[in-house]
Structure formats: C-alpha cells, structure tokens
Design goal:
38% of the residues lie in helices and 22% in strands.
C-alpha cells in the first residue's frame, strides 16, 4: 500500500463525505469549516469528482501557488495517476494540466484571468474555494462573480467554500440557501510559551534558532519554524546550520520560490528528524507530519497597496491571533506538543483577532479591470461578502480611465482588453500593451519585471543615459548573460536573488528576452510614460521637481535621471521628518517634452503669460506649453502694448518699484488734499483711495517701454490731472502751501495726517502780525510753534494776540539777555 493511502485512512473529513455530497446535490452551494490537517483540501475535491455531480472539471482555488502545486501532486498520487493528467494545477506562468484533467488546482489569480477569457467559466462544473479565511482580493472577487454566475447563466455550477478559521455563519448567509458542514479536528494538547524580553529584542532569525535548539531537546518529533519571508527563512537556516547542537537534524526551508522537489522534501516524511523553516504556507494550506514543536516569529507578509510603487505588495506585519492559534496547533497533530512564541505575553493584546480582508487594504484597479474584461462594469453589479467601498472603487475607476483601459461610461476599451491579458498591475500592463504596438516588448518586459521586485532591485549602478528603468533593464540582461553570478551582480549594483526572480518574470512577459537595444529602450521609456501619465516632473533646482497635481518632490540623488529637466517617475513615497513632509521620487527616466505631446495630445495646452524680464526689466510674453498643470516648455518674446504697460504698473502698485518723483512734495500735496476734504465735507472731495492709486499708476506707466522708463516719470502732475483743475484750485486756496507774512517773507505750512496744520516761525518773523492766521476760508486757525533763535519753541499757541499781550512782555527781557545780538520787536 502506498504512503498516500496510509495517510488518508483516518482523516477527520472523510466521516463527513455523505453529508458533503448530499449538501452539494441539494443546494449547489456548501460551506465547509474544518481545522487544519483534517484533509479537506485533498479529499473534498475527490468526493465531488467521485460523486458524479458533473462531467466538467472541478476547480480548486488556492490562495498560494505552492499549495496549488503540492496539493495537485498529492491528489494525483492518491488517485494513482501522474500529475497533469486527471489531476493537475495551473499557476502564474506554469500550466500542468491537459484536456483530460478533472480536478484542477489553480490560484485565485488564475481563475480571475480565466474569467476575462471565458466569462461563463464553461469548462468548470464545480468551483471549490479553499483556505478562504485568508480573504484575498481575488478570492473575494471570484466568489462574488461565481455567485452571480450561478444565480444567472450557470445554475448547474456547484460552489464550495472551505476554511480552517472562518466565520462560517456569515458566509452561509451570503451564499444562502446553502449547506453548512462543520468538521471537528483531532489535535493533541499544545503547551504555549512566550519568550523573555531579552530574546524579544534579538533579530528574529537568531531568536528562532536558539529557541529551536532548546525545543528539540524537549520533544521527539520535527520542529516547524514560522518566518514571514524568504530573507528571514534563509537567515534562520544559516543560524541553525551553524549550531553544533543541531548536527543530526535535517534543516529545510519551505517557501514558494523553491523548486517543487525541494518543497516536497520539506513536507514529506523522512528517516531522521527535521527542522522546517516555512512561511505561513504551513499554517493551514499544507500539512507536515511528525511536528511536535513550533517556533512562531509572530510575523507575516501582508498584501497592501504600495502607493509609492503603484503596485500591491507585501509588508512584514504582526500576524493576527487566529494565525498564532493555527500555527501552535501544528505541533499537536500527531502527539502532545509545545509552541514557543517569539514575543511577550503582553504582545497578544496589540495583535488583531483576524487579518483584515485584502479588499480593504489593497489597490482594486487590477480586480476592476478583470471584472470589466469579464463583462462587469463596476463593483456595484456584484454582491460582495465585504463591500469594497465607494472611495476605493472611484480610485480604481479613475486610474483605469487615465490609462485608457476604461471609458467614461465604465465600459472596457480595446486597450483595457489587451491589458487584462497580462498578470501585472494595470500600470505595467498598460506599458506592455504600448510596447507591443511600438515593437519593444522585450525591453518593456525587463523594465516591468524589475519594477515588480520588492525592495531595491538596483542601487549604486552605472548611469546609462539618465534613466533608472533603462539602467535596470540593461543590468538585468547583463546579469542574466553571466547566470547571475555574485561578482557580476555586485559590480552592477543589483540584488542577485531579486534579479533572478525578475528575469524569470520578464521571460514570461515576452518570449524573446535578451539584451535590450538602445532604440528599443528609448521606445520602452515612452511606453513607461503611458503607465505613469500622472507622474511627470519638471526640474526646479538641484533635485527638486514640480510634479503634476500641484505638488513638489525630491528625486533621489542616486537616480540616473538626476539633473534631467523633465522626468517620468515610477515611485513616489511621502516621507515625514521634523521639517514636515516631502515626496521622494525614484525609478525615474529623463524624457522629452515632444514625447508628451505625441502620447497625450489632449493633455497639452498652450498659454500666454505676461511677465517682466528679470534682467532687462522690460515686459515680455512667455508662451508656455503645459502638460496638465506643469509647464514643460517656454518661449519668450518682447512687445509693447497697453496690456504690457499694466504689467509694468503692477511693479509700482505692488511696491516692488518706486517712482523717483514720488517725494515729500507729492506726499505734502496729498496731505493738503486730505485736509481740504476734511475741512469742507460739503465739497465731497474724496481722498486718494487704493483703487484710485492703481489707476493713476496705470496712467503714469501708459506707453512705458520699461520699468526704468516709467520710474522716471512725474507723479504730481498725474495726481493733479486725476483730480482736475477745480479741486486743485480749491486745495491751493484753502490749504495753501505757504503763508505770506507782513515782512514779505513766506512760511511753510505743515499738514500732518491726523493733526492740526501748523507753522514753525521765529518771533522776529511774526512782527506786524497781530492776529492768528487762518486757512480754509477762515475755518481753521494755524497752530503756531513760536521759535527762539535756537529754533526751539518758546510757546505753542493758536492765540497770537494773547501771546503779544501776555507772554511776550515776560519773555522779551530773557530773550534779549540770552540772544543780545538779535533785534527784538517792542513789547
């Protein structure tokens, strides 16, 4: 008897076979809640296939490629067939199935692709959504699509949703009427411990290796270590292999980037004890026998929208408590076990209970494009288990519209249909469709593949012509030509592992991938612009750029595009610091203004702007070419005219320039005007307003050829012309500039703003004047500042007669003694 048959004999799910098949026949929809290791992923598809519910293919939708491939091989082994015949799998860039395949394991992303190619999914009789608790966006979308399909054009289709940790009641209501099967598991008790504070501070791989070395001494089985990603797995494996205490153990990594044979080796039984270091693929999707101890890093990769790179990507985050529970349970499948969590007990309180559905944390434009390609215009045409929300849908719709993938009515365009054929985010799918048209698909494929890698694909590389995307394409091709040797990758400044991954992606995107041509790269950069029409920047100074949308950003100084006058950038990250926020720009290419006119003629506008030449200070006309809201080109010309005079006048109105003749004499005349206005309200003389001032300045500057020409012009005549002869005559009469004295001399009358008009006058000059002089037709007496020869006042008065009669007789003797050389009027 084969190992596979021994393995399935006591699987808990088998006792529910009749219930599951009966529910599927009765309702056509079934929800199965079953703990890990119960056998649901391998057995339920076989139950439905053997029950004769359909003569079409049974699709088993998995959230992960590694699970789809390994489950397909396991089921094929159980059915004593070769994988790819009766049972097969289909994942991104790999298809191991044929015309006779009855059970097909595929990823949710592949099912989404098939929806666009065949909206009726005619080849499938049953679709099983496995591990649905992960709540992937594609899983939610495909289930909503299939639910609609089953209630419409495909009532013959059977739907099943399975999970180890799921709110099965909520899902049953969503699929109602449906069958609900809740299977019990068979687990042994697991002791859960937490690490101390010192261990919590260590790098997670070091802490995990030390914990594993201790746990394997206390147990007799295998040890399973959970790490968030490949980097942490490799570091942990290195630490374990260097520990002499673990010399007798087989240490194996487990993640989706390994070859299938390596993955099988990690999960299959072996003669000795093993330590498996895995991503959360081993949490529920795959069962590993003989595990009696678990080390849980408490971390996982969570898909979120990376606005900087405009792609959905994976971030390392704390795993929720539901995941921690599932991980611990892996130690109790065959015997009592132990789990050590690499965080303190208090850390549980800051962890969420469940993971947030992807539909609430990722960009939805790729999913919306898939739906449009399948005949669904918008999210509102489907009923969702979790509603995506209006804002997220609008953002996705706006992006597809800007990329030319959708029209204003929500329908898909020819470009959108072409984009939907690529397993890429919409921006890079748009780049590839444009590359097909321009004949540069291999160059564009290299750029798109490099852009999909996480972290820094290239750093410190050579500058090959002002373009980061082109640099990446050249570097990737050079590294591939030398089989990604460590030395070459180091010299090129690229990450060896990520480069190899990117090369594989590029080869799937374009059949003929080789070393790029310069002409091809030039065209590929144009295609790159079509992916990022909203990310254009014009150089301000240094590394600062004005970018579309009225913002400013700083290009990374290591960018090959640094210093280019006009750029298109693929990444934009808002960074916070003590000085505020800034937008960091990277993955940029220097571009030409003509390219924007060629690619986006409707986004180009030409405007004339009047300005003063900074050096010559004469009016100029700037003819600016705008792409959206940024000026990408400018031409200067000089011409005269009224509108140009207004431009000069604005320099004086704003105060940036001054008229040379706007002096104290001009100000004094305006003060006399204001005095006359206040003294004779019945004349309704209006003081100079701000609006009057602007108009007068325009009159003065009329016909001026330059700021200098206008600045030399006379102001007072213009003011007098503005008010007219009658008002000027009244000012001269009632607010005279000077007062004639009996001696024949004249004295200047001072008109202070907000004060009384006054004279500064020496006693000798008052001789013969007996009464206080008056102005404004006798309405206003002048305030007299009576001065001694030292020009210091001896009295301030508006009653001159009293001064002569009372004050002067007392002052005269003192003045005569103090200033004996002066003649003093008789008292």
């Amino acid at each position: 008897m084969s190992f596979a048959r021994i393995y399935i004999m006591d699987l808990p799910i088998l006792s529910y076979k009749e219930t599951i098949v009966a529910a599927a026949k009765k309702y056509g929809r079934i929800v199965i809640s079953s703990p890990p290791a119960s056998g649901k992923s391998t057995q339920v598809p076989q139950m439905l296939a053997d029950a004769g519910l359909t003569d079409k293919t049974i699709a088993v939708v998995e959230p992960r490629r590694i699970a789809a491939k390994m489950l397909a091989r396991r089921v094929a082994g159980e059915r004593k067939t070769r994988c790819g015949v009766e049972t097969g799998y289909k994942v991104r860039f790999e298809n191991c199935s044929g015309p006779d395949t009855r059970i097909l394991f595929l990823t949710d992303g592949m099912l989404a692709r098939e929806m666009t190619e065949d909206p009726l999914l005619k080849k499938y009789g049953s679709i099983i959504f496995d591990e649905f608790h992960e709540r992937r966006m594609n899983g939610d979308m495909c289930l909503a699509f299939c639910r609609r399909l089953q209630r419409g054009a495909r009532p013959d289709m059977t739907l099943a949703v399975m999970s180890a940790t799921l709110d099965e009641k909520e899902l049953a209501v969503y699929l109602s009427p449906c069958g609900l099967v809740k299977s019990e598991g068979k687990n042994y008790p697991v002791a859960v411990n937490y690490c101390d504070k010192e261990s919590e501070k260590l790098p997670v791989w070091l802490s995990a290796a030390r914990a594993a070395a201790l746990l394997v001494k206390r147990t007799s089985g295998n040890c399973l270590i959970f790490m968030p990603g490949v980097y942490e797995i490799n570091r942990t494996v290195s630490e374990l292999e260097s520990d002499e205490r673990l010399a007798g153990f087989e240490i194996l990594p487990l993640h989706g980037e390994l070859k299938l044979e390596q993955q099988e080796k990690a999960v299959s039984p072996g003669a000795g004890r093993k330590i498996i270091v895995s991503t959360n693929i081993a949490e529920t999707s795959l069962t590993i026998d003989g595990v009696t101890s678990v080390v849980d890093s408490g971390l996982q990769k969570t898909a979120r929208y990376d606005g900087g790179r405009a792609v959905n990507t994976l971030f390392t985050e704390p795993a929720p408590l539901s995941s921690a529970k599932q991980r611990a349970g892996r130690a109790g499948r065959d015997a009592p076990g132990i789990c050590l969590r690499l965080w303190s007990k208090n850390g549980d309180s800051i962890r969420p209970e469940y993971s947030e559905p992807e539909i609430k944390r990722t960009d939805l434009s790729e999913s919306l494009l898939a739906l449009k390609a399948a005949g669904i215009k918008n999210f509102g045409e489907l009923e969702w288990l979790t509603d995506p929300g209006e804002k997220a849908e609008k953002n996705a719709e706006d992006l597809l519209l800007s990329l030319g993938a959708a029209d204003k009515n929500g329908g898909i365009t020819g470009t959108g249909k072409a984009m939907a054929r690529y397993s890429l985010p919409p921006r890079y799918a748009r780049m590839m469709t444009e590359a097909e048209r321009k004949g540069c698909p291999r160059e564009a494929a290299l750029i798109a593949a490099a852009a999909q890698t996480r972290g820094n694909f290239i750093s410190g590389g050579k500058n090959y012509g002002g373009s980061d995307p082109a640099d990446c394409a050249r570097a990737l091709a050079r590294a591939a030509a030398d089989n990604f040797s460590e030395g070459v990758c180091s010299r090129l400044g690229i990450n060896r592992q990520q480069a190899a991954e990117a090369w594989k992606t590029a080869r799937q995107l374009a059949q003929d991938v080789g070393y790029p041509t310069e002409a091809g790269l030039r065209e590929a950069v144009k295609c790159f612009i079509t992916a990022f029409p909203d990310r254009i920047g014009i150089l301000l100074s240094g590394y600062r750029y004005a970018i579309t949308g009225g913002k400013k950003g700083t290009l990374e100084n290591s960018s090959a595009a640094a210093g280019c006058g006009l750029i298109c950038f693929g990444r934009a990250v808002e960074k916070y610091s003590g000085a505020g926020t800034d937008i960091s720009l990277s993955f940029a290419a220097g571009i030409e203004a003509e390219w924007l006119s060629e690619l986006f003629p409707s986004e180009i506008s030409v405007r004339e702007e009047k300005a003063l030449d900074e050096e010559m200070r004469i009016p100029a006309v700037l003819t600016k070419t705008y792409y959206r809201d940024i000026a990408i080109a400018s031409e200067k010309s000089f011409r005269a005219g009224k509108d140009m005079s207004e431009l000069i006048a604005e320099e004086f109105i704003s105060g940036r320039q001054k008229f040379k003749s706007w002096d104290e004499k001009t100000e004094e005349w305006l003060r006399r005007l204001r005095f006359t206005s206040a003294a004779f309200p019945e004349l309704e003389i209006s003081p100079l307003s701000e609006e009057d001032r602007k108009l007068i300045f325009c009159d003065i500057c009329s016909g001026a050829k330059s700021v200098s020409d206008a600045g030399n012009r006379q102001v007072l005549p213009a003011l007098r012309d503005w008010y007219g002869w009658d008002i000027c005559r009244l000012v001269d009469r009632h607010a005279p500039e000077r007062l004639r004295l009996p001696s024949g001399k004249t004295a200047r009358i001072i008109y202070p703003d907000g004060g009384e008009p006054y004279l500064d006058i020496k006693i000798q000059d008052l001789a013969g004047l007996t009464e206080t002089p008056r102005i404004a037709g006798g309405r206003v007496p002048l305030l007299l500042h009576i001065l001694a020869p030292s020009m210091r006042p001896v009295q301030v008065t508006k009653d001159l007669a009293s001064f002569w009669k009372e004050s002067y007789p007392k002052l005269r003797p003192w003045l005569a003694r103090r200033y004996p050389k002066h003649r003093w009027p008789a008292a």
